[in-house]
Amino acid sequence: MEIISLNRRDQIFSIVSFLIILIFHFFCIEFYPVNDEFIFPVGAKLIESKDINLIKSFFDFNANTLGFSTLIFLVSKIIHLEYYLLGKILSVTGLIFIFFGIINFLKIISFKPKIELYYLILLIFLNPLIFNFSLRATPDFFSMSVIFLSVSMLIRFKNKFSTFFNILIISMATFIKPFNFIFILLIFKDLNYSYLYSKNNFRLIYIFILTLFISASLFLFNYYLFNFLIIPENFELAKDFEILSYCVQLISYVGILNIFISPIYLNLILSNIKKNMVRYMFYLITSLFLSYFLMFRVGEIDFGFLTEYLNINFYLFLLTMSFFVFVDTIFSIYKKNIANNKLFINYFLILIILLIFLSNFHPTQRYLLILIPFSTLFFYLINQSKITILIAVFIYFLANIPLFINHYSTQKNIGIVLNFLMKEKIISQTYPGFLGQHSLNYFMINNENSKIEVNKNILFNKNKKFNISDLKPFDAKDIIFVSKSQNIFKRNKNIYIYKN
């Protein structure tokens, strides 16, 4: 059933809003790599060598499979650009996949949105997680966006070619980022419980089993080549189970997810507070107690560099209170029967399963990317307050300003240092230091003998002639170059090149 009938103004505003964000991201594809972006173009370069022993060295630096690097390498056969730029382009194309996925889901869901579609476009693409991770040449956003679109295609289109094509795409995206596979469970919203042996039920089971089989085959092939299924042995993403750590991670995951989506339904939160003042006082007191005595910071569940400006107990209080608010809101929606829709019911089951599963592993907010578009869609559709939606768009826009400035300034600072090293031809004589986490690919590939250097003992040899640090050396006479920070939030974060 077609549920959206956009007037021309809404169509134009929706497309223009999306194109502005998309074009902005394309203007940023030449940013220098930050936060582990470096390894995926290196992976493509290693695949190019066809030397299996050299390729295996990829896993000394990263816990992902070679899925994203392989895709970069394959795309390079069609589009002849640098591997790093191709990684950026793939991430940016993820915005396009999400856009069409949104259109598909709106045509699948059985009730009409009450607020213009372009607000939904802004809410999803300005969400700080979506906006910032789509700027990076990493597999997280790309894998999520591909699965989001393909699952919507599986639900909406039933022809055999489309079904098989999307099964292959989901399997590929699962190999790139395994936990995103869970989103395929959304197809079971069409399961016929009254007639289990129906043709449609067999189709759904066929899709699930075939996707699982192809995905498993890719991981088995990975095991054959590299002797591990999903995670290299030298990386430990899951630790021994401890009930306290598990509960803290679960609360943190739910809390940070809700912080990123709660602006969309602030009116519902305020309404619930007015009606249930005593219950929310209990949440407040409990959150204060937990944040001071039981909660602790885990993994990468934070607001990036902005977390540095928050008191740790206040930050933990925000997470804990956000957890209670989210749970309370979902129960409130369930009781009022606001979202009596199989698609939404299936989605929240997926959300619960995923969060329970993720809480066993090293926590990071980027694993929540798969939940953002559909969570936003849900609250957008049930919310009748245009003012709340406008406030949410404004909050997201403001939140992205410092995050983008930090990203832009960091990459620019890194670029200045790299250009100096390459101009002076001393990059192979320099210990990467501060740049090791961000742009190690320049030290691995752009060395003087034009070979790929993957030996960590050589790359991170502290006895090299020069060193790079964001801390000023004790003896200022040793400094040969300074890239002064232009970040208004990190004035003291200069990058120094100095003699050892």
Short description:
With 500 residues, the chain is mainly alpha-helical. It has helices spanning 8-27, 39-49, 52-56, 67-75, 83-108, 117-125, 128-133, 139-156, 160-176, 199-226, 243-261, 266-275, 277-293, 312-335, 342-358, 372-382, 386-424, 440-445, 456-459; strands at residues 430-431, 466-469, 479-483, 495-499. The mean pLDDT is 89.
List the helices and strands and how they pair.
Blueprint (H helix, E strand, L loop, with lengths): L7 H20 L11 H11 L2 H5 L10 H9 L7 H26 L8 H9 L2 H6 L5 H18 L3 H17 L22 H28 L16 H19 L4 H10 L1 H17 L18 H24 L6 H17 L13 H11 L3 H39 L5 E2 L8 H6 L10 H4 L6 E4 L9 E5 L11 E5 L1
Parallel strand pairs: 1-2
Antiparallel strand pairs: 2-4, 3-4
How many DSSP-defined strands?
4
Helical/strand content category: mainly alpha
Largest sheet: 4 strands, mixed
Task: Say what oligomer this is.
Answer: single chain
The SSE string, one letter per element, is: HHHHHHHHHHHHHHHHHEHHEEE
Shape field: globular
Q: Name the average pLDDT.
A: 89
Description:
The chain has 19 helices and 4 strands. The chain is mainly α and 500 residues long. It has 3 domains: 195 residues, no CATH class; 140 residues, no CATH class; 92 residues, no CATH class. The protein has a 4-stranded mixed sheet, with helices on one face. The termini are far apart. The mean pLDDT is 89.
Features:
single chain; 500 residues; mainly alpha; 3 domains; 4-stranded mixed sheet; 19 helices; 59% helix; 3% strand; globular
